[in-house]
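Predict structure. Chain length: 746.
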Amino acid sequence: MSLRGGDPAEIGGYPLEARLGSGGMGTVFLARTSSGRPVAIKLIHQQFAGDDEFRIRFRQEVAAARRVSGAFTAAVVDAAPEAEQPWMATTYIEGDTLAQHIAAKGPLDGAELRRLAIGLAEALRDIHRVGVVHRDLKPSNVVLSPEGPRVIDFGISRAVDQQTLTMTGRVIGTPPFMSPEQLQAPRGVGPGSDVFSLGTLLVYSATGRGPFDADSPYMTAYQVVHEEPSLGAVPAALRAVVESCLDKEPERRPSADALLVLLRDLPADLGGTDADGGGAGCTRDVITQHHFSTATPAPTAPPAASAAPGPEQSAAPVGRRLRHRWRPALATAVAVAAIGGGVAALTAGDFQADGGGDKGHGVAAAGAALPEGFEAWRTTVRGGAEDIPDELRCVARGDALFCGGGGVVATRISAADGSRVWTVKSPGVPVQGMHLVGATADTVLGYRFAAQDDPQGPPREVVAVDADTGRELWSVPSGAQSQAVTGRSQDALVVGSTVVTVDASDSGFEARDAHSGEITWTTPFPAGKRCAPVPVGPQLLAMCATDAELDALEVRHPTLYSVDRASGTLGRPIAVDGPAVPMGVADGTLVLLQEHREGADLTGYDGVARVDPASRKVTYSRLARTYGGTPGMADGTLYVSGQTGLVTALDPATGRKKWSRQTSVEGASGPVAGSDALYFSSATGRVVALSPQDGTPLWTTDPQADGLTGEQGASPRVTVAGRAVIVAAAENTLFAFDAQKPPKSG
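Prediction complete.
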């Protein structure tokens, strides 16, 4: 592919010859060294240059790739991760990817299959010996060079001495080739995860299908975790080795060294695949690729549509790091299965970002009525980045529903029939998990991200929109440190009729009238610290961490300050034992869950801290055990939704368990309180209603969207408008039904 107008002539002194591919994260060019050797240069898009979390991830990619010898990978030739526009040069490996080869020529067999298996095992041994875990071994990351297979793309790898950056609410990888532990607790995966992925690659190479292929990514992920692999078409000589790689328990899988011995002992000719292998020559490289494809999106339901939705088919990683932007496929279908999550609207009196309370969503009181003219409905709201679907989050204001997320700054929808009044779109690549900021009586606030061809504009802005007309009122650049400080992406929040933001330089707060945008006060952060706003009922707190802890990606000693809502003046500091995540308010105190970590890895929550802003007193309670999953809070009770559907209710005053209930909604976020019910929902749109008293299941719906349930730490997806339950699901899907007439399950 030839160079395009606007492409640089050289990078880092390397003259460019051609484009090899381009995507949401960057562009890959073919270049030459001074001696004429070809190299591949990955140039990061300009808009990521100011994203601290992205730079950290890119530095880790460079460091991980450099630690490996390069004998079985693409060796790093040069790199400038600190450059104004970061880049990395690696040896250029000529050849098709495994995905391309199988798509064009069908599965491998005999000696060719054996050589591939041994070559990949050698590559893993080389990678693991220097303490690196690749974490994204898949067909498009294996190049069939003349010298043998090479493993490329260390973009989500990690060294054991590096901080993991798996995003809250996101499992990064490609589900058909991910291990069970990577789908369930991605921040703790080790070398055994790569061995499992190698096993799936060998099945794919021998049959053209993955061992857990299914009709939807949700079912594929489910089968990876719970079902036995389909190995009938794998040559018998290889099957026993593959079975050992695909054991659900990492400790029972062979190491890369042991695997190499097993493969070398196989006969020189493994034999061909069975004739009835079911899919020979049919590649399923990225089963979720359609999730972020550039195909024309499905048409949106007509404005007045009222079709009833019908059935279609561990530890929460809330670490101290910033969410990176979506990165659509690079040159050879390098896909990222990003599993929905993020931030709901914040208003005074609630704290629902990434698993908080319910009030901002709209709570159905006893005997609540349906919006006038209500019928069950379903719709899809596309944003400015049409090829990057996301999840929305909504707040209800009377019969109006305001939603935002991804490429949608904000949209107004009728809660009665799902018809859209207006939509304001964002042109750029969105930050994962950034949804609606909030809404007042006359103003809606959301996030806008700069387009890739607008490097001069601010990467992220808070935008105010008139609630009636959708007309933009004002915008302001937004800072990006809140996720790193609190584990919750609340760079901006609404308090009464005021919106509080972190300024563009991450050096202080700015308060504005939500409608006019007029600044009412500004407050610098304490010296040497960066802060995030935290609502406590009608009060406002600042949660701060030192620059040193933020730079080390380890906030263990956060400090809270009361913030005067009239002047912005900070009160005296309140020290809190961390790491801890703000969850909500109970009896006038701020409730935080204390994280349990093993090294840098978050494994769950083992304690509760309660902060009384008036007395500045902090009290602590230990939990009976470490609870893993997605935390949330509603009506003064803490909840943790486990990856496999177990919901546990905890008393924030004592830390004692109130009740625990197994549900069929895996990877759910919540809770949201309705009329005598708590709602939990997954990215697929599957909803369960539980009794707040004892967790008794009241009803469960079937999935309504093609999403995955491996995400952790996602914000509540349900919004309640009177008796109407509105659910946000994957791919910008929204659907609504009567809480007394939920869609039938089964």
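Summary: The two ends are 50 Å apart (CA to CA).
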